[in-house]
Amino acid sequence: xxxxxxxxxxxxxxxxxxxxxxxxxxxxxxxxxxxxxxxxxxxxxxxxxxxxxxxxxxxxxxxxxxxxxxxxxxxxxxxxxxxxxxxxxxxxxxxxxxxxxxxxxxxxxxxxxxxxxxxxxxxxxxxxxxxxxxxxxxxxxxxxxxxxxxxxxxxxxxxxxxxxxxxxxxxxxxxxxxxxxxxxxxxxxxxxxxxxxxxxxxxxxxxxxxxxxxxxxxxxxxxxxxxxxxxxxxxxxxxxxxxxxxxxxxxxxxxxxxxxxxxxxx
Length: 266
Prior knowledge:
Blueprint: H1 2-10, H2 13-24, H3 29-43, H4 61-65, E1 86-93, E2 98-102, E3 105-108, H5 109-113, E4 125-130, E5 138-140, E6 145-153, H6 162-167, H7 171-174, E7 177-183, E8 189-194, E9 202-204, E10 217-226, E11 231-235, E12 240-245, E13 258-259
Antiparallel strand pairs: 1-4, 1-13, 2-3, 4-12, 5-11, 6-7, 6-10, 7-8, 8-12, 9-11
């Protein structure tokens, strides 16, 4: 565990991630088919809900990794639904502007968001969902509302698996991330997409590609309406999605639960 974490501090994570990202974008048939088959076999990827179900149907490994689902594969339920497939790694109430990262590890929600937490979020809650490599990797809005701002915050690219989450302080507030701020009848909320090692970028729904690395970017929207379940963005490799909501809820999930996009959180 200590060696794995130490190596991450030493590795040129951005360079490695972008270089692998170039290979993952290759449209050379034999290469991308080999990458897709090898990855799917190694991680036991479930093709059942995928709209395309063979390596030959994808233009590149990245096209496969951000694959879309069959229509109706993820029914929506609840005031807030799960934004992604994955495992609930942490959830609870915001206390003194701190969120739980892992047992014995807390971090600043202000640093995560790149701005002070608004006062009306002081009694709020959060849920953290870890997307494993085998999971569906598009992230969706958990509730209908109005998208106000989008802030891309450059940062590090540590892995976000359990080992690193338990061993690297302030992990989610130090990795690169996209912070979406929304107003919603269900509850005002933030949806945060956290990047990780080997992730070749975070791509929001309104862009044709990921943000340029190491460059801050902020967009303001004129109350852009989104529906529950609309796509918010996608990862090029496994990572984490975090919801920070303004009011307390009785969660219908608990830490350790495996969930799928659309599953009721509240």
